[in-house]
Amino acid sequence: MSCKVIFTGTGTSQGIPVIGCKCPVCTSQNPRDRRTRTSVHVIVGDIHLQVDVGPDFRQQMLANQLDRVDAVLLTHEHMDHLAGIDDLRPLIFNQKRPMPIYGTSRVLKVVRQQFPYAFASEEDRYPGAPELKAVEIDGQKPFKVEGVSVIPLPVLHGNWPVLGFRMGNFSYITDANQIPNSTYALLRGSEYLVLNALRKEPHYSHFTLDEAIDVAKKVGARHTFLTHISHDMGLEEEVSRMLPAGISLAYDGLVVEC
Ligand SMILES: [Zn+2]
Ligand SMILES: [Zn+2]
Ligand SMILES: [Zn+2]
């Protein structure tokens, strides 16, 4: 089945440029140094899956001329990954059905707390409110979304368990700094791998550039793309020159056919 991945956002939680920052990355004229909050849009056959719906979701859909989402998958409940959920409204209205949101019980609990009006009963719902359908996933067991097989990839974000997702030969991990051996086994055979790499300096809950490169080598995918990048990483052009073959920085708007 054909698979197309659109990197809708590749920046860390503050995005790049950071408000008020005058560093070389935040003032760079290179469009690849502008990064909205991390998310990815995966089209498998004719099914559109959105992995994470950050605060830049609306602009990301417009910038990439996307107008359909069949289901949302959430990696975890940090706001840079779900604060854009209200902007699913036009899609819910056009598609005339509640939007399925896949996540673990812990993640869905936060979605319900943040967007209680999206789960209101028909009598209580405000007419312009979005309608969400929470679909709980186990986090350890493969599941299907609109007929697409998805393998959850348990990883650690600090000491907090979050998920990546594998669909066919494409594996996506954002917001991690540790990958258990059992998850390496699930990654085996991935041809395209996405990993987070925040910056060069250590961080308590994200891979550094060197750590991400080590993981990429260990997995051995045909190509690895790095995402969730901070302005501290440095200029896209300079960092790109230092990377080993088969590893590159993702950028907003990058499209990969898997
Ligand atoms: Zn994040
Ligand atoms: Zn900056
Ligand atoms: Zn996070």
TrEMBL record:
Pfam families: Lactamase_B_2 (PF12706). InterPro entries: Metallo-B-lactamas, RibonucZ/Hydroxyglut_hydro. Keywords: Hydrolase. This is Hydrolase. GO terms for molecular function: hydrolase activity. The keyword Transmembrane helix does not apply. It comes from Thermaurantimonas aggregans. Residues 51-229 form the Metallo-beta-lactamase domain. The keyword Hydrolase applies.
